Amino acid sequence: MVPRQKKTGAVIAADTGNEMAKDNVALDPNGTTFGLESRSDVRTTILRYLMYPWLVAGGLNTLSGAGGSRKTMLALYILAQATKGLLQDENGKPVGPKKVLYVHQYEDVPEAIIYPRLDMMDADPSRYRLLTMRQRSPIDGSLIPAYPPVEDIKDALKNVVLDWDPDLIIIDPIALLIEGDTNSRKDVQPALVYCNALAQAHRPRTILGIHHWNKAGTFSGSQKFEDTARSFMDIAADPTRPESSIVTIEKANNNRKRSMRIISATHPYTADDGGVRNIQIVERIEDTELTVDAIRQIRSSGDDADDVLDQDSWLRDYLMNQGQEGATRKKIIEEGAKNGFSESQLKRALGRIGGESQRVKRAAGGCVWVLPQASHISES
User: Fold this and answer.
1) Residues 6+ apart with CB under 8 A from 277
2) What number of CA atoms fall less than 13 Å from residue 302's CA on the CB side?
């Protein structure tokens, strides 16, 4: 079958019955190849992770949050851990030291914010690079921050990938690669295609794109971001613990929604010029049942953060004491009222601690509440 070239530059190839007629397809650099693929043409694989289950290798991962949510701080922590070989794959094994490229906008001054943070987190300086964008000042000729066109940034990234071959590329923010409106599918699509091209150039590598929330406290951008990303994460400051933020995987290939808490700390840092200032860094990461959705719920409910902690703590302890059988919703609400908690507060607390409401025949009202680690309740 002779390939048919459309005006768009797309090329259509046909399966001849034995193998794809690949030799007959002259792919236009800006075109698309359409083909009929058979099972024998494909070698199946499993998903590989640079940081399980948060960062999938060989594709785009996104992290979005409001200003002050510590999203850049987390990105730098991941960078530091990657250079030291401390990230773990899907089998729980260290992935080994990795080379990381950090692409940033000049919101955080590198010499005053980014490099000090990386120094404080013991990043291996031989294994990371910052992609700088500078131009000559029209006033005195010194180097100042530049804001080049999108295509120039893409060309620079292409050259770095081909020449330096990083394992992880962090783009902060991913809007650097978008020409136009981040809410427009048409404008966002070329950037996402480019990110996937970076992720597959010669070998699989991990891309982490940082994105901002809108003023309403939700993701701001085209649905195409979530559709394309292998891992789509939200981050929000934890109102119950000022020193921490919560990261939740809102969508991940082959994975359930889960969260981690990043805990920050402030330490004095002595700069190369002898000056001393306090620098906030990620101190450690731990698992948590609290989700970003729950944080939104806390803020919208009007409950005091300390009250929320009390509600969660009381309900968690009460359910743990009930064991795998859990307790009826009616009984919990009665006991909660004795401690000053309303039914609506306890319902929200159940969601925050990851509990479940299960309908069973033996329960008064037909419903019991259990913690997630409890097994299914017998209906006998």
Assistant:
1) 116, 268, 269, 271
2) 1
Strand partners, 375: none
Helix intervals (H) in 36-97:
71-83
Q: Which residues contact 108 (CB under 8 A, 6 or more apart)?
A: 72, 114
What single letter denotes the amino acid at residue 301?
S
> How far are the Cα atoms of 61, 243, 252, 306 from residue 259, in angstroms, in the given order?
15, 16, 12, 21
Q: Go through the domains of the chain in sequence order and give each one's CATH number.
A: 1-44 (no CATH), 49-296 (3.40.50.300), 303-370 (1.10.10)
User: CA 258, CA 192: separation in Å to the nearest integer?
Assistant: 25
User: Contact, 64 vs 210, CB < 8 A?
Assistant: yes
> To 10 degrees, what angle do helices 185-200 and 150-164 make?
10
Measured between alpha carbons, how far is 183 from 172 in angstroms, rounded to an integer?
Answer: 18
Helices (H), the chain: 71-83, 115-120, 150-164, 185-200, 224-228, 292-301, 305-322, 329-338, 343-352
Query: Closest Cα partner for 94 from 109, 108, 102, 83?
Result: 83
Q: What is the pLDDT along the chain (380 residues), one digit of tens a residue?
A: 444 444 444 444 444 444 444 444 545 555 778 888 899 999 998 889 999 999 999 999 999 999 899 999 999 999 999 999 999 999 999 999 999 999 998 766 899 999 999 999 999 999 999 998 989 999 999 988 889 999 999 999 999 999 999 999 999 999 999 998 887 888 888 899 999 999 999 999 999 999 988 766 666 676 777 777 888 899 999 987 889 999 999 876 655 678 999 999 999 999 999 999 999 999 999 998 788 887 887 787 777 767 877 888 899 899 989 887 888 999 999 999 999 999 988 988 887 777 888 887 655 557 899 886 543 333 33
Token look-up 């309740």 returns 377
H or E segment at 232? strand 231-237
Tokens standing for residue 153:
């940034």
- Which two tokens mark 221? 């951008």
In the chain, the N- to C-terminal Cα span, in Å, equals: 65
Residue found by looking up tokens 């080379």 in the block: 99
Compute how many other C-beta atoms are within 10 angstroms of the C-beta atom of residue 155: 12
Q: What 3-state DSSP class applies to 227? A: helix
